[in-house]
Amino acid sequence: GNSPYHLTVKPGGDPKKSYAKGKGWRYAYDNSPAQFKVYVKDEEGKAVAGETVKVVFLDKSSAEYKAKIDELVGQVDEYMLKKKADMNSAARAARVQAGEKVDADEGDVPVTVVDNGDGSYTVTYVAATPGEFMCSVTLDAGHIQQSPKMIPVHWSCPNKPCAHTQSCLHEEIRKQRNEIYALKKELAAMKGEAFTEDPALEDGDEE
Prior knowledge:
Layout: E1 19-21, E2 28-29, E3 34-39, E4 54-59, H1 63-74, H2 78-97, E5 111-115, E6 120-125, E7 131-139, E8 142-143, E9 149-154, H3 163-191
Parallel strand pairs: 2-9
Antiparallel strand pairs: 1-3, 3-6, 4-7, 5-6, 7-8, 7-9
């Protein structure tokens, strides 16, 4: 025949070089779709498409967290609780009608992973209840960076924006501001240009 055959075997994803980013990697709200992206890299840091990315959420809510949720819900009047229940039911029905996953294949939260073909993978999940969830993101060779990690799913207020929603929004803005500041500073250093430091931002953001 045509032997010998020459095969090119591409390296698979390296969990130590792969990572996740996005708002849904930090927090979510119950009954609302949350997303983050997983970036799979090989040992040389090159993007890897066609990888199997497995995402599993397990409810690990502590007694303290559950008590906090109960306290929050206890402050809401009966009308608003019914409104929230109706909103949750409508949102689930809409997902079913759209053909979206509403039950978990594994773990406690339904998850969809889409291969974008460029080494990035979009993860979408919808937690039905608030809580503290352990999120594991694995490749065939193991956990990616920061996995497993705890992701809080907050109780979504029927009337938005509520104080908690606003605090998360401001936290998100603060993170983005610090990231932009750090990039500008790094770029100036690479170009050998002068950079005016802002003392208020010099502590930066750890994440």
